[in-house]
Amino acid sequence: MFIKKGLLAATILSVSCSTALFAHEHHQDEMCGETKLHGYMMDIKNELRAMSSDIKSGDNSAAAERIDSLIASLEQSRNETPYQLKAEKLKGEALATQQKEYVRIIDGTIDVFKNLEQALLSGDSAGIKKWLGEMGSQRQQGHGAFKANC
Known about the structure:
By secondary structure, this protein is mostly helical. It has one domain (about 5-145): Four Helix Bundle (Hemerythrin (Met), subunit A). The protein has 6 helices and no strands. The radius of gyration is 16 Å and the shape is elongated. The N and C termini lie far apart (about 45 Å). Residues about 25-30 have low confidence and may be disordered. It comes from Marinomonas algarum. Keywords: Signal. GO terms for molecular function: electron transfer activity; heme binding; iron ion binding.
């Protein structure tokens, strides 16, 4: 089974190198400094890079093993508040609504990773490509809604 490894690797690398998946916080001021959410997003970025290497080398089972760590970081991220929501100084119902949307995107990404894991374990090249594309879409949603420039 030959996957177009160059294209697949480029897709993974572009997703993993584009400032992590969601509300990745920058380091320019104290609100944007080192936070738990930033740490989780950096963990995700590092795991995605490693997963990319695994897939490039044809080791789908090793790539699939990384998904547990990715999901754990996403689950921990659920309880954090993205910088964008802090910067907008949202309170009450507005904050609750945006926080629910943030969690919805996190949960959607977890589902994508679970599907990617199944595709990796079954050697489903088309599925791997599909779920990597979905991963990129989730990243765009998260960044579009919750990433702020500090």
